[in-house]
Amino acid sequence: MSKKTALVISAHSADFVWRCGGAIALHEERGYDVTVVCLSYGERGESAKLWKQAGMTLEKVKAERRKEAENAAKALGVTDIQFFDLGDYPLALGAEAKERMVDVIRKVQPAFMMSHSKWDPYNTDHMYTTQFALECRMIAQAWGHNPGEKVLGAPQLYLFEPHQTEQMEWKPDVFLDITPVWEKKWAAIQCMEGQEHLWHYYENVAQNRGNHFRRNSGGQAGGRDCRYAEGFQSIFPRTVDEL
Amino acid sequence: MSKKTALVISAHSADFVWRCGGAIALHEERGYDVTVVCLSYGERGESAKLWKQAGMTLEKVKAERRKEAENAAKALGVTDIQFFDLGDYPLALGAEAKERMVDVIRKVQPAFMMSHSKWDPYNTDHMYTTQFALECRMIAQAWGHNPGEKVLGAPQLYLFEPHQTEQMEWKPDVFLDITPVWEKKWAAIQCMEGQEHLWHYYENVAQNRGNHFRRNSGGQAGGRDCRYAEGFQSIFPRTVDEL
Amino acid sequence: MSKKTALVISAHSADFVWRCGGAIALHEERGYDVTVVCLSYGERGESAKLWKQAGMTLEKVKAERRKEAENAAKALGVTDIQFFDLGDYPLALGAEAKERMVDVIRKVQPAFMMSHSKWDPYNTDHMYTTQFALECRMIAQAWGHNPGEKVLGAPQLYLFEPHQTEQMEWKPDVFLDITPVWEKKWAAIQCMEGQEHLWHYYENVAQNRGNHFRRNSGGQAGGRDCRYAEGFQSIFPRTVDEL
Amino acid sequence: MSKKTALVISAHSADFVWRCGGAIALHEERGYDVTVVCLSYGERGESAKLWKQAGMTLEKVKAERRKEAENAAKALGVTDIQFFDLGDYPLALGAEAKERMVDVIRKVQPAFMMSHSKWDPYNTDHMYTTQFALECRMIAQAWGHNPGEKVLGAPQLYLFEPHQTEQMEWKPDVFLDITPVWEKKWAAIQCMEGQEHLWHYYENVAQNRGNHFRRNSGGQAGGRDCRYAEGFQSIFPRTVDEL
Amino acid sequence: MSKKTALVISAHSADFVWRCGGAIALHEERGYDVTVVCLSYGERGESAKLWKQAGMTLEKVKAERRKEAENAAKALGVTDIQFFDLGDYPLALGAEAKERMVDVIRKVQPAFMMSHSKWDPYNTDHMYTTQFALECRMIAQAWGHNPGEKVLGAPQLYLFEPHQTEQMEWKPDVFLDITPVWEKKWAAIQCMEGQEHLWHYYENVAQNRGNHFRRNSGGQAGGRDCRYAEGFQSIFPRTVDEL
Amino acid sequence: MSKKTALVISAHSADFVWRCGGAIALHEERGYDVTVVCLSYGERGESAKLWKQAGMTLEKVKAERRKEAENAAKALGVTDIQFFDLGDYPLALGAEAKERMVDVIRKVQPAFMMSHSKWDPYNTDHMYTTQFALECRMIAQAWGHNPGEKVLGAPQLYLFEPHQTEQMEWKPDVFLDITPVWEKKWAAIQCMEGQEHLWHYYENVAQNRGNHFRRNSGGQAGGRDCRYAEGFQSIFPRTVDEL
């Protein structure tokens, strides 16, 4: 059987680190090839610290953000990271971007995909990325799109954890134990030098999701001693042979 | 390791057949011991055909309904079926019934539980059963309830498929392939002689859920050729080591 | 064919006036026999004006409220008004009350029923009345409940307009033109002497629902010139031969 | 009075058959002129069987799909079927398409319109079609759009049944008895030669919706013996003179 | 400390009057500078009365609508009113419009913003305006957008009251007492000569919202004697030092 | 003017500490008298650590839990703490308990009340407590309940933060800066010796809510440097004179 793969679609170049860095590192360790696509560098909207420096330019910010993301990807063991450079705040998600994304999806043939929450009033880039992911998944499934290519199956789309979950109408239905790879995620987080104010925030998140994992795996009556976890919301139903 | 177990809480004595007969038979084949608790016989509210017969009495209806349920349970390979005889339309779900149910839960120590949808404007017995199941699960987890007994862990509560799903605000997040045990479910269905008008209905449901299984496992690009399936809605998040 | 009938279940004795007085008067004019059941007089919770008077007693309040409700019922042409006197704030909706209500439902055999909104954080009597209405409807449909009686069919349950609709998660899906009977509703409203502060409020509601009727029947391009309307939310789907 | 009309907006050329073929045939028999607009042929995304044939081209697929749709329309007695040929997966719903659709709406002056569900994570074409339908309905109501033309009133927009209803957040509020025209719908379904795997699926749907019709029209206590039905979700409230 | 400011984004030129005229007048009296941006004149879709006159042209309608809006703004004491003239039914909310709006937001630096409801099936202009407002707010917060300009903080976005609130899924969480400025709002309303059919409607709304204010500030046990109020739904959580 | 007061209704004796200890301490510092009612000690369901000790009895657990709660209350500066001792898992919330609670509410005349989330599938005690709080609030507002007593106005009911917020359908709409009293809350938390596994969890929560406070008060463009916060969901709309 062929290699297992996964695909993460990240609106800005740091999102994949905070939101699913553990899942990436864990699945890489389990033999998956994980591809990360950063639609933008978050160069305008998520680089306040850089812009406060004198003489900053858009190109400098993008270069710096790219370097940080590449370092984080390396720390997580990402197989392939791609930068679509579509601009941010707002993202430009037109026909050409869709074609390009569909090509990646078709090539990767992911067992599962990841993207943002369905609603985000703070950051419309996030929610439009999810619409974009759904639309591209649909196109990749079309037998008449670039006939002859391998058509996409039905990979799950997991929505990774947004900031301020309750405001985003995001509800996790699966918790993943990332304790074995926490050190990798922590290292990746520390690559995001421009957003140091978020490091501890996401450490807290990981610890508290670990608590949720313990509670949902049995609590004080047999729960797993998970220390760090990540939560995800599934868009599609699962198909199983045992509950 | 000890035997795997499951617990089905059925408001009326036929519900477990239509709604999760396949899951029962399949997990029995996989080595689970499945316990079914029928809170009532559905003697008043779901036995119209019997009541249309001359000289019918409540006891006769209950006896007939019990016989049908026992036959269906046998067809499915149910390990244990219990009848709480709490009355129906409406169910009487008081303190004593809770104690009794908690005892069963503690004894079974189910890997997962099953019950009805959260909302059912046609049949309040159904939705009160789900509240009852949640409350009893909570009590069974309390270390101070009958101290010394084995405390319950954190079993999933699956809500099985109601009639008219959309009116019940029920949304399946997992489909189970019951093709290998369809003949058993079909045999069990045919034990419900008083509700013959529903046999074909639930055959259609099983076939169409099979279609949904095929679609969600890959569709025309690699989907499983599932012929019959059942859908379930999970109340609690899952805890996993791989997505 | 037999006479058409309808049944209104009103938590407190004034609710049927404000919320569906127009529907009652209109259907009476159309030949329906409308029965109104007031579960309580609203004697404790909705009679502030009376309680501010010196020497007031519970019995005096109840007598006064009953008189007002009877006058309003007469103004609307109500066929039958019954007072269950179950107490209010909170209502006592036990087994006996259910039996009594089921008897009324079976006797009336309503083409449609009316009750309160599903959610009301200001007034739990209202939302428990709706649960009660659904449960009694279910019991009345049970062939084994008082076998031999005529079993209930499947009447629609309309939720009439609550105060502060948006807080009650109430959404009307049908508007009824009550222009022809507005004078009757206005007369009935004026019977509620203890709640004069609400008269103009519900006049405004009726006018603005008239605007909604006009808009939804065609607006400036052919809408009906409705002056007064009432809105209702349906619990169950309709069954039709033409859309 | 002028002829009654209806308008169906179908994202891909087969949608109108599965989802509202019965409603079309029934209303044609009742004297309505029903117009169907197929925004695309579903040539890329819903023609897997054709694309698996050797030497297939986009034009051939479109021609084949058009032929099937025309045959189905004929079987249903459709008055007028139009193909906008906007491309599929994804649909291109730009300003020009809107103008064209508004022209059709204005010309047809439908008593009611039909379209897809509001949400569809499997198929964004479907949900964007509904947004498109709402937007075009709004434009058609504008007195300043092509002044002098007959302005649109306030037709209901019915959302017809999607695949996997629960995943689409679709809830039917009206069931239409299509028993009298089932043979026509079944004939139309069989015109869709490229999607034979769906024939039996939608036969099951029609039968089970018939069960829902029976249940909601009275069940065992007087329900109509409907054999086949279709369900619809209304976007707008109704305006009536009797409940 | 600098002057307090607020920004209202109105899809069509009359929306700000009906929906938040009281809030504007009140805050102006309290020392705020309120800026109103009308994205369009509502020239095509909300000027039926004008279009029914002979010889009407788009330019005449726009001029008339502008005059009415300016008069209303004057009556309310609006500090600045701007007309983006983007066309209506549908609005054209492209990249250029966003740039222009972001410039206004940055310049005004509002303490709070106002816009339409999130959902409006009757009028897609309304809901797209809210998406537009959220997107522009996000861009205005980006440090890399026009570096050097003052970056936007985190103003609340209030959704003002739509027509037919329940159909728009709008739920007010704050009521503002506009009794002190009602005369100004009433004067502004009367400036909208082309929509006289709505004057009384919004008077009723203001009175009934006054009732809601009274009820929520204590009712008969200490509630404020508010006569007129407006309701708003907040998108973002508040940050406070006392509850 | 009289003293400001607040009332916290805590299902189990530790809930008020984790969920609103900061709000209590802060409002006490601001001059409020805060009353805490613990409906139970959480003696059966939230005292696993104690029950694991040899020779434990229900009375010992209750005594220990009471001592912890009293110590925590002292640390927070609570004015009055009352223990209703209604039993837990499940709570017994009958007519007598309601009477008692209404008496407290009437006596305290709170400016605001606090309780649990509306939904909690893990812990039905929590959600029934919220129903109980709403019902008692309603009774306390009834002029006919114990006539002559001071009738309750319309205090806000804040739902404090549950465990696993997203599973509880809880969405905070207000964040309170508790930085000035964090040391008090931390001291109170450490009084809960039996639940040490939760100390760090709620420290993380407080820090991350501090991040949300910063973000919603302006973020990097002027946000308050809040270090610790608590979030609350309001049931009722606010009434204000300025937005």
Biggest interface goes to:
A-B, 46 and 45 residues
Radius of gyration of chain A: 18 Å
Number of continuous helical runs of chain A? 7
Strand content of chain A: 15-25%
CATH class of chain A: Alpha Beta
Number of strands of chain A: 8
Shape of chain A: globular
What is the residue-averaged pLDDT of chain A?
A: 97
Order of helices and strands of chain A: EHEHHEHEHEEHHEE
Please describe the biggest sheet of chain A, giving its number of strands, its sense, and whether it closes into a barrel. 7 strands, mixed
Helix content of chain A: 25-40%
Oligomer: homohexamer
Please tell me the CATH architecture of chain A by its name.
3-Layer(aba) Sandwich
InterPro entries (chains A, B, C, D, E, F): GlcNAc_PI_deacetylase-related, LmbE-like_dom_sf
Protein name (chains A, B, C, D, E, F): GlcNAc-PI de-N-acetylase family
GO molecular function, one term (chains A, B, C, D, E, F): hydrolase activity, acting on carbon-nitrogen (but not peptide) bonds, in linear amides
Structure description:
Six copies of one chain form a homohexamer. With 243 residues, chain A is an alpha/beta fold. Chain A contains seven helices and eight strands. Chain A has a seven-stranded mixed sheet, with helices on both faces. In chain A, helix 5 (124-140) links the parallel strand 4 and strand 5. In chain A, helix 1 (15-29) packs antiparallel against helix 6 and helix 3 (58-76) runs antiparallel to helix 6 (182-191). The two termini of chain A are 25 Å apart. At the C-F interface, loops of C face helix 5 of F. Chains A, B, C, D, E, F: Pfam families: PIG-L. Chains A, B, C, D, E, F: InterPro entries: GlcNAc_PI_deacetylase-related (IPR003737), LmbE-like_dom_sf (IPR024078). Chains A, B, C, D, E, F: This is GlcNAc-PI de-N-acetylase family.
